[in-house]
């Protein structure tokens, strides 16, 4: 290992790409290795493309566990946890339960807000530098029930309290904000600072940016490391390639725990599976992205196409598709947008991805104990796209010797 050896980023999803981009821009020699040559495995390619300062409440929050248990009883619901005899799953659940409280929300909301706003600013800069479009019209949280609207009004009050703009809207105001679509809703919240983009267009732009900044790409799976006195000196791929490294950035998404296991570290993480379907000729084209409260479905216009995404299934790292749960997404969407028929979705390709979920809903960004040249950037759960740029920028700072934020410490669960 020498100073001239590259920084090796493992994982070519949004977090690995953003890390590689900011490292290369900071003048480091960068190599990014990813095994997913067909781009079927990464969670980043066909997600909902939302950049969401409105998501300042972590996944572990009050009411989530009770709601999750109710949903477990319904095959078409947006949440499922497959019970397994896996001690890691139960340890994760226990930590999730411990963090699902008001205090945790209060401790995390400013952090998530600040990360999101910094990331949003970086998206604006990246969009100008790399030439992808960022649509800054905001996001509608749409509600079909009075109860849903009441819950979201509470979130809106909290948002305004911490400086995230949120407007409570009746159906007329919603129709005024997005006049080209019919929506069957009681009302909703308009988070005007949220944005959306086409995730694949963004990832391609990042790949171009990395190459232009001198970064290199390797197709391959990292299967081993050579270690020397508390440092990683080489990563070994499945094809037997030996890559000299000066630093390693672990950005392997839901598979990151398998990578850090080589360093004797156990990273609590579960894959949270979600699906997306993309309509190439939608019956109507919304101008704003939206979240459908009662169905937990995300709807995003991407160019001339419309993406509909949803579900959170904690089922291990299994990417298979459950047709019943998929139907739940389509049913919900058609209820909110009555101009669409279920048959519009017949025969469409279904994409599935694994959100890397930590038990407290906050990412792991920082060094690990025992290995001076290893950094971790993963666990972004529902916010990986949103927080990609800020995470990448932090990786460049950490690689330059700056210290991280203890709230995101990858070692925080011991
Ligand atoms: C349906 C759905 C909708 C979503 N919508 C949004 C949204 O609107 N906004 C938002 O912010 N987030 C959204 N998310 C979440 C977001 O997509 C994820 O948080 C994010 O993609 C995670 O990125 P990542 O780079 O950490 O992981 P990934 O994208 O999964 O990338 C990890 C990569 O590492 C590679 N890898 C793993 N191990 C190895 C190894 N040993 N060697 C080589 N390569 C390896 C994998 O092949 C993979 O390509 C959504 C997720 C889903 C499922």
* Broad shape: globular
Q: In oligomeric terms, what are we looking at?
A: single chain
Helix content: 25-40%
- Name the structural class: alpha/beta
Number of helices: 10
Indicate the mean pLDDT.
96
Strand count: 21
Question: Ligands bound here?
Answer: flavin-adenine dinucleotide
What's the main sheet like? 9 strands, mixed
Low-confidence stretches: none
Our estimate of the beta-strand percent is 25-35%
Distance between the termini: 29 Å
Rg for CA atoms: 21 Å
Detailed description of the structure:
The chain has 414 residues and is of the alpha/beta class. It has helices spanning 14-25, 64-72, 87-99, 102-130, 146-161, 171-177, 199-212, 256-260, 323-336, 388-399, and strands at 7-10, 30-34, 50-51, 79-81, 134-135, 139-143, 167-169, 187-191, 195-197, 216-219, 222-228, 231-237, 242-244, 247-250, 270-279, 289-292, 297-302, 305-314, 351-357, 364-368, 371-378. The mean pLDDT is 96. The protein binds flavin-adenine dinucleotide.
What labels would you give this structure?
414 residues; 6-stranded mixed beta sheet; single chain; alpha/beta; binds flavin-adenine dinucleotide; 21 strands
């Amino acid at each position: 290992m020498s100073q001239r050896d590259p920084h090796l980023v493992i994982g070519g999803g949004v977090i690995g790409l953003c890390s590689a981009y900011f490292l290369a821009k900071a003048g480091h020699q960068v190599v990014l290795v990813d095994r997913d040559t067909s781009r079927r495995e990464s969670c980043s390619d066909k997600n909902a493309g939302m950049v969401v300062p409105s998501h300042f409440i972590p996944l572990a929050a009050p009411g989530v566990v009770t709601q999750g248990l109710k949903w477990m009883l319904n095959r078409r619901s947006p949440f499922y946890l497959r019970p397994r005899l896996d001690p890691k799953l139960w340890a994760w659940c226990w930590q999730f339960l411990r963090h699902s409280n008001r205090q945790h929300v209060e401790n995390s909301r400013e952090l998530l807000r600040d990360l999101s706003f910094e990331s949003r600013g970086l998206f604006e800069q990246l969009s100008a530098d790399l030439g992808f479009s960022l649509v800054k019209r905001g996001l509608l949280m749409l509600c079909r029930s009075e109860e849903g609207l009441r819950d979201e009004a509470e979130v809106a009050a909290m948002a305004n309290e911490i400086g995230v703009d949120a407007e409570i809207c009746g159906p007329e105001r919603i129709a005024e904000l997005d006049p080209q679509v019919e929506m069957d809703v009681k009302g909703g919240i308009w988070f005007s600072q949220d944005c959306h983009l086409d995730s694949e267009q963004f990832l391609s732009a990042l790949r171009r940016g990395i190459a232009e900044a001198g970064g290199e790409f390797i197709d391959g799976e990292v299967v081993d490391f050579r270690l020397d006195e508390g440092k990683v000196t080489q990563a070994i791929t499945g094809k037997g390639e030996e890559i000299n490294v000066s630093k390693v950035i672990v950005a392997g998404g839901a598979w990151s725990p398998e990578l850090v296991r080589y360093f004797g570290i156990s990273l609590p993480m579960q894959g949270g599976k979600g699906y997306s379907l993309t309509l190439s000729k939608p019956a109507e084209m919304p101008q704003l992205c939206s979240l459908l409260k009662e169905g937990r479905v995300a709807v995003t216009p991407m160019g001339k196409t419309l993406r509909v995404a949803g579900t959170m299934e904690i089922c291990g790292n299994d990417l298979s598709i459950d047709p019943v749960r998929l139907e739940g997404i389509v049913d919900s969407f058609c209820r909110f947008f009555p101009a669409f028929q279920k048959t519009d979705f017949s025969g469409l390709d279904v994409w599935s991805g694994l959100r890397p979920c930590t038990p407290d809903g906050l990412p792991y960004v920082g060094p690990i104990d025992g290995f001076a040249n290893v950094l971790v950037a993963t666990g972004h759960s529902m916010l990986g796209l949103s927080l990609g740029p800020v995470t990448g920028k932090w990786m460049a700072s950490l690689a330059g010797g700056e210290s991280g934020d203890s709230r995101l410490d990858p070692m925080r669960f011991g």
